[in-house]
Structure formats: C-alpha cells, structure tokens
C-alpha cells in the first residue's frame, strides 16, 4: 500500500530536482530520517557517496533487501536512538515526518560545522492535504496534533539553524483512472487516519475524484515547503 501510494506522487521529481539544484551531494554522506521505502534515498544515492535510510518500521527492511544498492544502507532503529549515537553526517534529510519538536536538538547534535539540514513538509492547506475535510468525515484529532507538533518544530528551527533557502514547491498526485484513485485514497485514509469510509464519505470521495478528472487522469495538487539550513 505504501509503495503504491508513492508510485503516483511527484512523477516530475520536483523534490529530487530541488535538492540537486540546491545541494552538492558529491562525496557526501546523507542520513534520510524516516526514509520509508526510500522514495528519496534511492535517487539521491546516485549522486552521494553514501545514503543511510533510517526507519523504525520493520516492514521496509524487506524492500531494501530486495532492492540492494551498494552505497545505500537501511538502518531499522528509532531515530532518537540512532541520533544519540554521536555520529555526524554531511547532510540530514527529514522529509514528510511525523514530528516531535525535540528532533531539532537531536538533528543539531548529528551535524558537524559544514553539515546541511534539509527539511521537507506539506502545506496543510494544499488540495491534497484537505481531502479528509472535503469528504466530511468525522475523524480523530491525529492530524490536528500533527500540525501542532509541526508548527512547534518549525518555530524551534531558528534557535539552532541558519536558513539558507526556503521554497514553496508545487507537486501532485496523478492517478491513471478513477478506480485506482479511489482505492489508493481509501487505503491512505485508513493508513494515516484509521478512517473507514461510510456511505456518505464514500459518495463524497467519488464526487471529489470526479471533480479532479483531467483527460481521464485524476490529479490532486500538492504544495510542499522546502527548507535548507546549516548550523549557526
């Protein structure tokens, strides 16, 4: 489900292109925190000396074992434990995380004086991020809590880091047809929010999908924020 969800996101590789345009990866070691299936780890490994894909979820281990790459290492451990080991990295990437503001200090401690920190997160008001509200589902407060934690995390960034660049990027989810769009969005709602569709929300989701139809494809616009920072 996670693999399929990533398959239809950012097909133009906006995130990767932005990283490559703003950061020199040659001979650099990258730590990708919360790497998932390596959506960013694998392409970045083509340009870097080494990429360490860090994720606490054991289910991703099989994927990395199957898709081995010489300079890409999957580490299956909680980020807090790994960042407390005293290791230093040239580049730390934190993309689309579920945040704890305490990560700011942990990331700082894993950087040397020339390290760079890349932080990528969604804009909570973008087309894709507001799907839950648009289908009128009574859901838990998980997303609100996540937003609150993210805001607190961002507020703490200037205390430890100097901003080099901040950009708002436009990406999208492009599904080949309505059937695939419905299945993936239904699964995503269950995976991220533990939401099981009822008759009303299923009807609203189908209606929303139809509104996003463009030449037989279903397109939801996503907006994300790209931060590039270094230590003060």
Could you outline the blueprint of secondary structure elements for this entry?
Blueprint: H1 2-7, H2 14-22, E1 29-33, H3 41-45, E2 50-54, H4 61-66, E3 72-75, H5 79-83, E4 89-95, H6 103-109, E5 111-122, H7 131-134, H8 142-160, E6 161-175, H9 178-193, H10 199-211, E7 213-214, E8 217-231
Parallel strand pairs: 1-2, 1-4, 2-3, 4-5
Antiparallel strand pairs: 5-8, 6-8, 7-8
Summarize the structure.
By secondary structure, this protein is α/β, with parallel strands linked by helices. The chain has ten helices and eight strands. It has one domain (2-231): Rossmann fold.
CATH H-tier superfamily: Vaccinia Virus protein VP39
Could you give the order of the helices and strands?
A: HHEHEHEHEHEHHEHHEE
Mean pLDDT: 92
Largest sheet: 8 strands, mixed
Number of helices: 10
Strand content: 25-35%
| Domain tally | 1
């Amino acid at each position: 489900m996670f693999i399929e969800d990533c398959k239809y996101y950012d097909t133009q590789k906006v995130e990767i292109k932005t990283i490559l345009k703003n950061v020199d990866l040659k001979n650099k070691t990258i730590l990708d925190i919360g790497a998932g299936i390596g959506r960013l780890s694998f392409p970045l490994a083509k340009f870097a000396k080494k990429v360490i894909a860090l994720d606490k979820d054991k289910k991703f281990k099989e994927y990395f074992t199957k898709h081995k790459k010489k300079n890409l290492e999957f580490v299956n451990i909680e980020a807090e434990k790994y960042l407390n080991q005293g290791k230093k990295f040239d580049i730390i990437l934190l993309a689309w995380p579920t945040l704890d503001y305490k990560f700011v200090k942990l990331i700082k401690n894993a950087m040397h004086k020339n390290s760079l920190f890349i932080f990528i997160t969604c804009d909570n008001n973008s087309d894709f991020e507001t799907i839950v509200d648009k289908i009128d589902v009574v859901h838990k407060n998980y997303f609100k809590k996540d937003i609150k934690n993210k805001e607190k995390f961002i507020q703490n960034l200037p205390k430890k880091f100097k901003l080099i660049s901040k950009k708002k990027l436009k990406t999208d989810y492009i599904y080949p047809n309505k059937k695939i769009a419905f299945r993936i969005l239904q699964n995503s709602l269950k995976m991220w929010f533990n939401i099981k569709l009822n008759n009303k929300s299923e009807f609203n989701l189908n209606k929303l999908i139809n509104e996003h139809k463009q030449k037989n494809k279903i397109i939801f616009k996503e907006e994300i924020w790209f931060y590039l920072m270094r230590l003060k």
